[in-house]
# Entry
Amino acid sequence: ETGVTQTPRHLVMGMTNKKSLKCEQHLGHNAMYWYKQSAKKPLELMFVYSLEERVENNSVPSRFSPECPNSSHLFLHLHTLQPEDSALYLCASSQDLFQGLETQYFGPGTRLLVL
Amino acid sequence: AQSVTQPDIHITVSEGASLELRCNYSYGATPYLFWYVQSPGQGLQLLLKYFSGDTLVQGIKGFEAEFKRSQSSFNLRKPSVHWSDAAEYFCAVGSTSGTYKYIFGTGTRLKVLA
# Structure
């Protein structure tokens, strides 16, 4: 596989469930990102990892828990979500930590529905 | 505050017609500007980017954009639209103010009529 892949592509979960989103990049990049894309709103950056260390957490509720076991994999663990968390969750990577210049490469996203 | 505005939420054009998608930004320093496209069921794909130099930037799929500092704009253009260009287009500014993120616009959804 090439580029950035995400699984699952679609997920329906209840508010009491625990689930995880997975992202894998095959580009040899050092930085990875989680974004939330909601209808009629700009993309929201959630988390940033560089060389497996979290460098930014944009005031994301604790019901979202990221994990980066290595530079190729990024997870987003979900628990006790709310219906307003329903959105498209996009993973992205860049060669190095984004300093305004780097191109980010996006995965296709996971469409999450919280019931 | 830094911001990106895409004033058109939806645009419809006929196949073969020319296209211009508007993007205005508010940013204190020289901006790094990007256009991304998102096809249905896909992630975002970079079309083109501007860092410095020539203000007319060529991208993939026949797209180009022009940086106009005096108007704080970075409009995307294509001379002849193809049906496969139907997608959502996002303008973004690369923030260099100590954070590691794009500032995205809300997107413009393009519909192409056969």
